[in-house]
Fold:
Amino acid sequence: MASWVLSPLYGAVLLLALVGLALLGLAGFATNVGAGTTRSVTPPIHLLVPTPAFSGLVSPHIEVVSQSDYFTCVYPQSNGGTQMANATSSVICESGPLVAGSLRRGSSAAQARAAAEESGYEIPPNYVAEPANNGQGWVFRAPGTTGNADIVRVAEENAQNPTGYVRYYNSGGQPLNWAGKPGPDDETHLPLRSETGSTEDPLGDDFFDLGFTATLGGIIYE
Amino acid sequence: MTPVSDTSLFGGKELDAVGEPVWAITLDSNVVIVMGQHREHEFRIENDITVENHGVGSSFSVRYDPYNRDDPIRENLTELAAIIGRTVVHCKAYVTGTLEIVLDDGTVLTIAPKDKYEAWTYTFGNFLLSCPPGGFESL
Structure:
């Protein structure tokens, strides 16, 4: 009996198992995989446990995700209605898994916001989300506004655009490029998956503080 | 009487700009066609516009690309201005992504979808319909 308890092998197994259980408890692992009612939004941190000798006894890696990274599932909603852009409690779990930089069909507003921000595109926290009328993404706008001025649109992926994209508009309804200026198509469709992998805000922190005015300096026929 | 749904059209019906006059055409980074006396309907066009009028036998293409660094493109914009004051009799967004605007003088404006980018966006209040890359059917 005493030799069993003191065995270095079993002692190590017991220690690792206890550490693993403690970490799983902290991460709410049971809730995550048990009822399928929560979902991680940010890429989880992978804590690698070097346990080659105990393969099969302890999971080769443990996902450590803070509780704040979970969204609560809601039932899929119809295309009508709005939800707050920062409604972190309204992920539709039936939609595809959230992958940094991409946005699959049937996304929720929170997933669209997260996908945009994972790719480095800021959406003001007070912006209200509306389902895109074309059924392929979300429109984020300042509360109480109408039209296409000062909005941010997040488009889901489709066959032609496999990552999805973000479009920013100034107060004149012009689509903007990464520098916050009007530009050609290829510059104003901002891909959700950064080719460089950079997570820096391509628009800069001051983008929404610059108070862009309408640059409708072109010709007007009336 | 309930209108018959046209399955070839996005949403099964024409856009709300039907009956509205063409009020203005604005050139900024795109061609923007504004309709309605209160400029409440806006079509932001990001692709070529084919303009046809079989009654008078005219046909031309409006091309506008001010960002082409070597040779900015501005073709037939003056000719396009002739639609100002005309009334929209049909305004169809096909599920294929093609936008077709028919005016009361028989002029037909057609904008095709683009493969990789949005070709046009229609805005009316909070209704904002953009043509996805490849059209509405591209899943």
Remarks:
- Chain A touches chain B through 39 residues (CB under 8 Å).
- Chain A has five helices and 13 strands.
- The first helix of chain A runs from residue 2 to 6.
- The first strand of chain A starts at residue 38 and ends at 40.
